[in-house]
Amino acid sequence: MFQVIYRSSICLAAVAASSTASADEAAHAVAADADSIVVTATRAPLTLDEIPSSVAVLDKATIDRAQDIGVTELLLRTPGISVSRNGGYGTSTSLRIRGAESEHTVTVIDGVKLNDPSSTGGGFNFANLLAGDIDRIEVLRGPQSILWGSQAIGGVINIVTASPEKTLEGSFDLEAGSRETVNARAAIGGRTGPLAWRIGGQRFATDGISSHARAFGGTERDGYRNTNVSGRAELALADNVSAEVRGYYSSGRVEFDGFNTDSNDYGQNKEFVGYAGLNFDLVGGRFRNRIAYAYTDTNRDNFNPDRERPRSFEADGKNKRWEYQGSFDVSDRITAIFGAENERSNFRSRSPSASLGVPVPDFVRGKAELTSAYGQLSIEPVDGLTLNGGVRYDDHSRYGGQTLFAAGGVWRLPTGTVLRASYGEGFKAPGLYQLFSEYGNVGLDPEEAHGWEAGVEQHLFGDKLVVGATWFDRTTTNQIIYNGCSSPTTDPLCTVPGSNPPTPRFGYYLNVARSEAHGVEAAAALNLGGLTLDGNYSWIVAEDRSEDSANFGNWLPRRPRHSANASASYAFGFGLELGAALRWSGKSYDNASNARRLDDYTLVDLRAEVALSDAVKLFARAENLFDEQYMTAYRYGSLGRSIYAGVRGRF
């Protein structure tokens, strides 16, 4: 039902053919895809067999078959991923890779990094990212800082929207279901002479659930609305020169509950992503170059109509980024990737008082500049063996320079065995919000990390069965966490810096000396014609290892130590495909002291799809079939049993 390509040092699950394919065609598709799938999150197109890091690839067919509305639901089915959400669709959503912090993941859409400088750690909130017109998702696990910057301690999620292949083409999705949910999406594009273009739009609406968990008395539904549009155009100026522009805009409105009770709070979120680039090839195509400018703007506002002053919070974060990237084929066996980047970030935020008698405070503001240079060399000394190594230098306007290293190798043996190993480093300056907001601490030190992994995968019976596993290990020093303040307290950081008389605050950000994460990710996939079985299991130990801390040895918050996914699907010869999926997540803890436990849970989904023609399919699904009640964040609700049905067209 949910087939994802895991061709990595962790695992490999082969992609099944479409529901209309025969058994022979399916087997051929698996074998072909295993050797030809190209990954672009490596900053240069590489096949999966050339990448030392752990990779999962979700192509358009996989995304369609899964039928998931949000990107986080898709990613949860891959190894090493955990998600915590403060309620239903649209509420604050944090995604973690291998137990790293959510802001340790770099999220990229069409080549643009999606971090929000006004968010807590300068990371990306997945709440408003819907599947939309996405054509492909690539997940690289483990440190990826050489090519993607210091923030990529946990990994990289690379999202690519659809690009036109025909003179004129289009697609649409329309579905409806539980809680008055309606999701509608359409896109059109084409290629005419030197011009290729595509535009798409989506509208999603649901009455939702109470973000305040039902177990704690939450009854009022908190709805969510999201409208997004995306577009891209590429113009060939000459045989070796092209210009391109891309854009993405999302506007969401979500209702939520504040202070552990049902309330009328709601938030508005607007995100804009823009990109303009010039591509040119030299030396007969061996020397490829790209010069680009990217801009992101995230605007967030919270309101409560029951307050005397309705607006309770406002924030805005902007990134302006110039970059150059080059790729040079020294020979058939040696390739170099190199580049330079300059990123300027700024944010502002404030939390006005509910009383009109209290003046609206000035915005808290902050800014930073990061200039970087990097290079990576990839060599194939003998057939089947690929080695690479790289270095990156970051110059931060507040914290100075930092040099990072990475290296890895992959060895493809004639026996169908693939061996992988890699090492990487990361460096992340504190987020602007962590430094300068009302909870800020200008004394914070940068976070530093290093990690390694080693794994094996085995292909059997002509790739009909593939099994694999990887061990990973990562150490982070000066990790930044939020520290709550109690009353009374003698902690000087529990007062607003510079306030006179001293004004208490709820908490502040501080460094912990050390955290460690290690574990195993394993998966297997079996393809027998129309029947496909696959599954994965992750054991992730993420702990506070600060020797002088009262939390030494405690689990890092909201990170289950065990999780597993399994799915089965069968494609009948007359266009019908049925599937079932199971997700199990072990217990976790909501806070650093491990005083609040989040229980384990099991979710079961069913899906069906029937082809009316080559272009049009009907689909239906039942999610959380047994109406499991669970929490990924303490006191916040989660979606119960949900039924959806719709129609999809690809022309």
Structural overview:
The protein is mainly β and 651 residues long. The chain has a single domain, classed as TonB-dependent receptor, beta-barrel domain (Maltoporin, Chain A). The chain has five helices and 34 strands. It has helices spanning 23-36, 60-66, 71-75, 145-148, 432-436, and strands spanning 5-6, 38-39, 46-47, 54-59, 81-85, 93-97, 105-109, 112-113, 134-141, 155-161, 169-177, 181-192, 195-209, 222-238, 241-255, 266-282, 287-303, 311-331, 334-350, 364-382, 385-396, 400-412, 417-428, 447-460, 465-484, 507-528, 531-544, 562-571, 576-585, 588-589, 597-598, 601-611, 616-623, 642-650. β17 and β18 form a beta hairpin.
Entry keywords:
651 residues, mainly beta, Maltoporin, Chain A, 6-stranded mixed β-sheet, 56% strand, globular, disordered N terminus
| Cα shape | globular
How much helix is in the residues?
A: under 10%
**Estimated radius of gyration:** 24 Å
Enter the CATH topology name.
Maltoporin, Chain A
Main pleated-sheet profile: 22 strands, antiparallel, barrel
In short:
With 651 residues, the chain is mainly beta.
Q: What secondary-structure arrangement, pairings included, does this model have?
A:
Elements: E1 5-6, H1 23-36, E2 38-39, E3 46-47, E4 54-59, H2 60-66, H3 71-75, E5 81-85, E6 93-97, E7 105-109, E8 112-113, E9 134-141, H4 145-148, E10 155-161, E11 169-177, E12 181-192, E13 195-209, E14 222-238, E15 241-255, E16 266-282, E17 287-303, E18 311-331, E19 334-350, E20 364-382, E21 385-396, E22 400-412, E23 417-428, H5 432-436, E24 447-460, E25 465-484, E26 507-528, E27 531-544, E28 562-571, E29 576-585, E30 588-589, E31 597-598, E32 601-611, E33 616-623, E34 642-650
Parallel strand pairs: 7-10
Antiparallel strand pairs: 1-4, 2-3, 4-9, 5-6, 7-8, 9-10, 11-12, 11-34, 12-13, 13-14, 14-15, 15-16, 16-17, 17-18, 18-19, 19-20, 20-21, 21-22, 22-23, 23-24, 24-25, 25-26, 26-27, 27-28, 28-29, 29-32, 30-31, 32-33, 33-34
Domain TonB-dependent receptor plug: 48-156
Keywords: Cell outer membrane, Ion transport, Membrane, Signal, TonB box, Transmembrane, Transmembrane beta strand, Transport
Main location: membrane
